[in-house]
Amino acid sequence: MGALDGLLVVAIEQAVAAPLCTVRLADAGARVIKIEREGGETARNYDRVVKGTSAYFAWLNRGKESAVLDLKASSDLKLLRQMLKKADVLVQNLAPGALSRLGLTDNVLTRDFPALIAVSINGYGQDTAYAQMKAYDMLVQAEAGLCAVTGTPETPSKVGVSAADIATGSAAHAAILEALIQRGKTGRGQCIEIAMFDCIADWMSVPLLHFEHGASETGRHGLSHASIYPYRPFQCVDGAIILAIQTEREWHRLCHDVLHRPDLFEHDAYSNNALRVQNRHALDDILEPIFASLDVETAIKSCSEAGIAWARYRDVTEVGAHPALRSMDVTLPDGQTAWIPRPAGRPDLEPRPMPALGADTDKIRAEFG
Predict the structure, then answer these.
(1) How many contiguous H segments (helices) and E segments (strands) does the chain have?
(2) DSSP secondary structure code for residue 189 in this structure
(3) How many degrees, rounded to 5, is the angle at CA 55 between CA 49 and CA 59?
(4) Long-range CB contacts (< 8 A, 24+ apart) of 92-95?
(5) What is the pTM of this model?
(6) Is the Cβ–Cβ distance between 325 and 319 less than 8 Å?
(7) Which of 113, 120, 37, 112 minimizes the C-alpha distance to 72?
(8) Pairing relationship of beta strands 31-36 and 64-68 according to DSSP bridges
(9) Rounded to an integer, what distance in angstroms lies between the CA atom of residue 168 and that of residue 151?
(10) In the Cβ-directed half-sphere of 92, how many Cα atoms lie within 13 Å?
(11) Distance CA 122, CA 168 (A)
(12) Closest-CA residue to 296 (of 233, 223, 230, 241)
């Protein structure tokens, strides 16, 4: 039994942000009806790498039903309204204003379906000058400044996964759970807007606060931390180790027990994190030769014994065999199975199959028509 058993979610969704939100609801037991256009939603057609299924679709669509509807046709729009009469949640990430053009404005939704929690995922706040802008993940990362603090000093970069979409889907999921609690107190639903730009702007709070209050522009430092030092990789004889020093106690242990340089801890220029960041290049010149004389296993052993946090750099080819990776098998639309990482906090999840395109259309027409 899931926490959301009995909850009905109607999802007019595509790509990543909305499907991520609704797959979390489905994992918790909600019934999620995914409304798709003829030919299927965008993510079905990105690739065929997972035994003929798109990687994005395989990741985000387990446990859902699929109905192919043409919402511009009056009969299917009427069917949607019948579904909303029974639904607890509506999640949609159509183009800005598309739902309103179908006659389902916030005012109409609130009037006609007073218990419905209606979540609209947009690129930008609908009360801003960017309301009608098209918004895809990398475009939002760029507009919100995330690319400006990601990459090397020479090259700004996007985050290598769909950070804006993931942040937005997660925020929408949390907002729905809060709204369900509120509805339990008031009996009424609500209309909620989740803007991708807002989600990444929130993530950008620290660089923004450094600039607005400290007149300091966060630079790009590749695998090194912009405002904590030492928090970076160090090259050893046979590979690299990444260290993370976050407290003065850890800095003391690093200097005494790993570097065998207690004078560094006592040096006025390195006595706190702000000074170490300010003098990071001088410290680089000291620390890099020490680690360059060690092999990785020796460096790891010393750091572990000193209670210093460390990590190895791993590429994607190694992550699938990582000793910490938890996985689960999912059933693809054609009945084949494939493994994917298990979502956090769900050790006992038994994922339901993902739907073939339109597999449930007839059943849903009969049920709600």
Answers:
(1) 16, 11
(2) -
(3) 150
(4) 92/11, 92/12, 92/13, 92/18, 92/118, 92/119, 92/120, 92/121, 93/12, 93/13, 93/14, 93/15, 93/17, 93/18, 93/120, 93/121, 93/122, 94/12, 95/134
(5) 0.91
(6) yes
(7) 37
(8) parallel
(9) 22
(10) 24
(11) 9
(12) 241
Which amino acid is it at 315? Answer: D
Q: How far apart are CA 369 and CA 359, in angstroms?
A: 17
Establish whether the linkage from the previous residue to 114 is cis, with ω within 30° of 0. no
DSSP of 105-159 = -HHHHHHH-TT-EEEEEESS-TTSTTTT----HHHHHHHTTTGGGSB-SS-B---
pLDDT tier, 154 (very low <50, low <70, confident <90, very high otherwise):
very high
Q: Give the pair of three-digit tokens for residue 194.
A: 């989740």
Beta strands 89-92 and 231-236, pairing class:
unpaired
Residue 177 in tokens: 């759970």
Band of pLDDT at residue 217, cut at 50, 70 and 90: confident
Q: Which two tokens stand for residue 328?
A: 């689960």
**Non-local CB neighbours of 54 within 8 Å, separated by 6+ positions:** 43, 44, 45, 46, 47, 48
